[in-house]
Amino acid sequence: VKKFVGIWRTRGANMAEDGDDGVMGRQLGGRKTKVKNKSAAERQITAEQMLRESMERGGMDASFRPPKRVITDHQELSELRLRKRKEFEDTLRRNRLSMGVWAQYALWEASQKEFERSRSIFERALDVDYRNHSIWLKYAEMEMKNRFVNHARNVWDRAVTLLPRVDQFWYKFAYMEEMLGNVAGARQIYERWMKWAPGKNAWNTYVKFEVRRRNIPRARSIYERMLITHTELETYLKFAKFENKHGKREYARLVYERGLKELGEEAHREEFFVSFAKFEESCKEYDRARVIYKYALDNVPKEEAQRLYAMYSSFEKKHGTRETVEDVILSKRRFQYEEEIKKDPLNYDVWFDYIRLEESKGKKASIREVYERAISNVPPVAEKRFWKRYIFLYISYAIYEELDAKDPEKARAVWRHCLEQIPHKHFTFAKVWVMAARFEVRQKDLAAARKLLGTAIGKCPKEKLFKAYIELELQLVEIDRCRKIYEKYLEFTPENCKAWVKYAELEGSLQELERARAIFEMAVNQETLDMPEMLWKAFIDFEIKNKAHSRVRALYDRLLKRTKHVRVWISRAQFEASLNEVKAARSVFEKADKYFKAEGDSGKEERVMLVESWLDFETNYGSNKTVEEVRKRLPRRVKNQRLVKGEFEDGSDSYYEEYYDYIFPDEDKKQNTFKLLEMARKWKKQKTDE
Description:
two-stranded antiparallel sheet; mainly alpha
């Protein structure tokens, strides 16, 4: 490099003598050439664009790697080491607390086989911060890697002396001695470690070490010492598992019993009893295991005993009888239901599940006890929605007593008690009255059934009660009673068209046509009706069925006086068509068309329906000429806009909406005439202005 610089200096001096100052300045950093035009270029380019273009043209290869340097002699190696050491020392001088740089420096020296230098650097790093774990670990690993065993022992010894609470140092120190075959040294290290009362993992490591050396008595003594330091349930379980694994079952049982005695309530945990019971089961001591399970279920909190229940049921399935298995399952589920009921006694769904559980067992006393407990939880609010599930408890109870328990007197008492519990002044349940009456019918006590339904209608009349009472009397063919009940029914709800229709149909089925007509007449003359169209239709159908055509026409005329609905017109025309009275039907359609035409825009949609029905009629009953005439009446559909006013008076929130309109041929002609007059008016105004 010095030679290269000397050559360039000589060349520069020669150029200066020749007067080429500009070249010399450009090449050697002398006087710079003046730039004449300093204005910005028209096309600007960024550094990012330059780099991107360079990459696209292959000027920069992403896979480029600097060439490896080959050192050929000792002098070059010495220079490289000197430069590397200088870089490390400069870095450490700037940041003395960078432990990563210390470790890299020391390991680099070790890679150069300069072990004394490496040790010196590690020692300097420890002087800076001896609490840094990674420095100790790398220091010891360097010594072990290069087979300096005694040096590694010294490093580990210093580390565990200065930082005895770092378990990793102890692990690696003991493992190194064990790998070297120094069992006594490893045991000594473990003993030193145990004096510091480390965690459970350290004791377990010591035990495993002795097990690997096949020194079981010593491992047992370590467990005994561990119980003094860590008096915990996990320690007892591991100790018992250790004894069982090595064939000392009596010792294992003693450990379990000792844990139960020494830990007290702390041992009342699911995992302890499961492990103890499994141990006894493996020893084929099934009676002992069963006693343990039962003791556990009595002492372990129930919310924590889910797995215990599962294990107990599995145990009984394997080694118990059918009765014991069922008792286990039922007791578990029974306990779950009891816990849920304690939280919310008004949760009737839980009561239903509990009752089904007891019914599956089949003990009447238990079933009745649960039913009585359930119905004793009366809803506190007199609102029907809170009583629905509660009432179903009574219904289920009564059905059980009647069908399963075969005790009708008890079932009757349940129905009676249920009816007494319901606050009939606020609401009632027609289902309960009806089911109680049907129960009396099944018991062949018609008087009691009639009395129940009569009481229900008197206390809290409901449509369902009237229907059930009428149905009962119809099945018994008590027509006079049915008529009396219908009269009460219509007094209760005179606007109920269904009741009027059913009453008239009853009379019609008995061929009492005049009575049926009288009932229909009374019905249509009522001031208010909930479904008058249904009533009129039933009346008309009744007369059609009896072929009283003149009465049907009279009814249609009366109905059209009350309402001009398009369906009434169509129905009237279809009636005439059914009698082959084509002219009469056509005249009905023409009258209806004139009426809706006179209505204007308000009757357009009805008129469309009418013309379409008219066209269908002519297609079926008319000729081609009449069909064409009606088809010409069909409107065309157009899309228009209309202004919709908003809430504000100034109209700021008004808007236009699109709608479909129907334009009939007769309306179209009028519009064309209006358009012609409008155009003439505009032409006249234009001439006047000129």
